[in-house]
């Protein structure tokens, strides 16, 4: 499965998620220092149950299992999310356009705007 999703769309989705989590951390807890924790929870929960974060949905992306494009399992979402917060794993890509966090979790991003 070859994925050619631009780095720009990935970063836009990530930025949308980060800004939303920043607003939640500041608004609910009065502490911007909790943004990473809110981000971790948001990505884990939304990826586990819906296959996409809010940012992914806005830019037309979805997280799927690499082997069969099915929904990611909760353990795949956990591995992916844990590695995603270690930024270097998210900015290194293989020939399929997958970051380390995607390879080690067995996931990939699917472009919902392209017809298969």
Question: What would the keywords be for this entry?
Answer:
mainly alpha; two-stranded antiparallel ribbon; 5 helices
- What distance lies between the first and last C-alpha atoms, to the nearest angstrom? 11 Å
Mean pLDDT, to the nearest integer, reads: 88
**What order do the SSEs take from the amino end to the carboxyl end, as H and E?**
HHHEHHE
- The side-by-side strand order for the widest beta sheet comes to 1-2
Number of helices: 5
Total count of strands: 2
Please estimate the helix content: 40-55%
Instruction: Outline the biggest β-sheet.
Output: 2 strands, antiparallel
Spatial shape: globular
Structural class: mainly alpha
How would you characterize the overall build of this protein?
The chain has 116 residues and is mostly helical. The chain has one domain (7-111). It has a two-stranded antiparallel ribbon. It contains five helices and two strands. The longest helix has 23 residues, at 7-29. 53% of the residues lie in helices and 9% in strands.
Mind sketching the topology for me?
Layout: H1 7-29, H2 35-50, H3 54-59, E1 61-65, H4 74-84, H5 100-105, E2 107-111
Antiparallel strand pairs: 1-2
Helix pairs in contact: 1-2, 2-4
Summarize the structure.
This protein is mainly alpha-helical and 116 residues long. It has helices spanning 7-29, 35-50, 54-59, 74-84, 100-105; strands spanning 61-65, 107-111. A two-stranded antiparallel sheet has the order 1-2.
């Amino acid at each position: 499965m070859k994925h050619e999703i631009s780095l720009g769309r990935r970063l836009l989705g990530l930025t949308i998620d980060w800004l939303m989590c920043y607003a939640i951390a500041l608004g609910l807890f009065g502490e911007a220092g909790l943004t990473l924790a809110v981000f971790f929870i948001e990505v884990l929960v939304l990826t586990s149950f819906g296959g996409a974060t809010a940012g992914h949905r806005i830019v037309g992306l979805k997280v799927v299992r690499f082997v069969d494009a099915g929904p990611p399992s909760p353990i795949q979402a956990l591995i992916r999310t844990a590695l995603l917060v270690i930024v270097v794993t998210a900015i290194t890509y293989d020939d399929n356009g997958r970051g380390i966090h995607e390879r080690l979790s067995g996931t990939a991003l699917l472009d919902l705007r392209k017809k298969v």
